[in-house]
Design brief:
This protein is of the alpha/beta class and 259 residues long. 39% of the residues lie in helices and 17% in strands. The chain has two domains: 175 residues, HAD superfamily/HAD-like (Rossmann fold, 3-Layer(aba) Sandwich), CATH 3.40.50; 70 residues, Orthogonal Bundle (DNA polymerase, domain 1), CATH 1.10.150. The longest helix has 19 residues.
Length: 259
């Protein structure tokens, strides 16, 4: 794991991080998780099928190529930049055909509405949820995407009604509910200071930035679709960065929601 906190230092021979004696270890009473590539491997289980679904939609909308060629072009563009706002127009520019805006819109809609099949949580998620629940820490999930599809993911992962999860919020592409607004709603609901809340996610420009703007602690799980994405400034730098969700409970926080 890697600490971003300037006051953290390595424990000899263990590669772990600890705060200096001059600073108290923060108390965490609430953890808010992202869903995709945070609690399950979205890159491995969802991204390629979603890009094929988008390729099919582009061809139906008039893209001048085959589905297979469009799919391969999407994967090439994804490797250069995983953002859909880059991928969709790059593929249209390569083949042409139809109206660019209409083809890109069809691709984006199809990507987010790709049907959900069998999904598996990352190893370590269920033990972490049990650990937090045993300490009285409140746990929320705030996902982003097409709400109906995100709900299907939650059901497929066995998280719906899980006793260790207080509530799940669904931020949407139309921004009827943003992640920032969901974080603020949870804080208001719990009446907790921001310094007792932790945001865990994989995207610097989304949940990490939103958490930092609200004064919350942040941990980036550097894995999956946006693993190559770099913070654009200090406002997107997480406090800690880990490779596996199982590393989170070893971070220098005091986990206790009962205080």
């Amino acid at each position: 794991m890697m600490a971003r906190n300037s006051e953290a230092s390595s424990s000899a021979g263990k590669g772990q991080k600890s705060f200096s004696s001059r600073k108290m270890i923060p108390l965490i009473r609430c953890v808010i998780f992202d869903l995709d590539d945070t609690l399950f491997d979205s890159l491995g289980q969802r991204v390629r099928p979603a890009h094929r679904h988008a390729a099919e939609a582009m061809v139906r909308a008039g893209l001048n190529t085959t589905v297979e060629a469009a799919y391969r072009a999407r994967i090439r563009a994804f490797r250069r930049d995983p953002m859909l706002r880059h991928i969709d127009p790059a593929v249209w520019s390569e083949f042409g055909g139809g109206d660019c805006d209409a083809v890109c819109r069809a691709a984006r809609d199809a990507y987010f509405k790709c049907p959900v099949g069998e999904l598996k949580l990352f190893r370590g998620v269920l033990p972490l949820l049990r650990f937090l629940h045993s300490r009285g820490v409140r746990v929320y999930i705030v996902s982003f995407g097409e709400p109906e599809i995100q709900r299907a993911k939650v059901r497929a992962l066995g998280l719906e009604g899980h006793p260790g999860i207080d509530q799940i919020y669904y931020a949407d592409r139309d921004q009827l509910l943003t992640k920032e607004a969901a974080f603020a709603m949870i804080q208001q609901q719990l009446q907790l200071p921001a310094c007792e809340m932790l945001i865990v996610g994989d995207r610097p420009m989304r949940e990490i930035r939103a958490g930092k703007e609200l004064g919350m602690h942040t941990v980036r799980l550097r894995h999956g679709e946006f693993a190559s994405q770099k913070p654009r400034g200090p406002e997107e730098e997480p406090d800690y960065e880990v490779r596996h969700v199982s590393e989170i409970k070893a971070l220098p926080f005091t986990w206790n929601g009962n205080n």
